[in-house]
Amino acid sequence: MGERTGPHGIVRGRPFTVHDLAAMPADGNRYELLDGVLLATPAPGTAHQKVVLRLGALLDAERPDELEVLPAPFAVRASVTTELQPDLLVARDEDLTDANLPAPPVLAVEVLSPSTKLHDVNSKKAAYERLGVSNYWVVDPVEPRLTAFDLAGDGAYRNLASKAVGPEAFEATKPFPVRVVPSELLGRRRR
């Protein structure tokens, strides 16, 4: 008896793989894999996109030449069953391929949305930690707040003492010096 397939020709009864991602519909969702489990995220809202755009530009302006800043969708492909797309990533230029990043980025940034908040602060944080991503930032556009995690010598994230909220500045030293003011990432508010 042959393998049973479901919608889009995906084989049922086994973990999802990166090969299955190519069969996902172009429906506006972002599809990621975490240990063979498919994560589907709807298109983000205005505040999310403002933060991604402004933080990406800020990081790109301050990065050293050997690093690159890329927004999603660009995949961190850790294995055949794990492919994540942080909202922003900073990677060594030498680690990038045209298709994806097969090595851990030096910084992964997730901007919270109602549909992603639980994954971003729990399962994706744990996955980035396991993959050896040395710096992980979570930005909440609602408050606005930036929380930074740094990979300690024991391979576990420690919460940095500086959690910047609103007009407070976060003075990052890793992966390179940059000053981020969470409230400025939203730009002008719509009336």
UniProtKB/TrEMBL annotation:
Keyword Hydrolase: yes
Alphabetized UniProt keyword annotations: Endonuclease, Hydrolase, Nuclease
InterPro entries attached to this UniProt entry: Nuclease_put_TT1808 (IPR012296), Restrct_endonuc-II-like (IPR011335), Uma2 (IPR008538)
Matching CDD domains: DUF820-like
GO function term, MF aspect, one: endonuclease activity
Keyword NADP appears in the UniProt entry: no
Span of domain Putative restriction endonuclease: 20-162
Signal peptide limits: none
Full protein name: Uma2 family endonuclease
Species of provenance: Saccharopolyspora halophila
Lineage: Bacteria, Bacillati, Actinomycetota, Actinomycetes, Pseudonocardiales
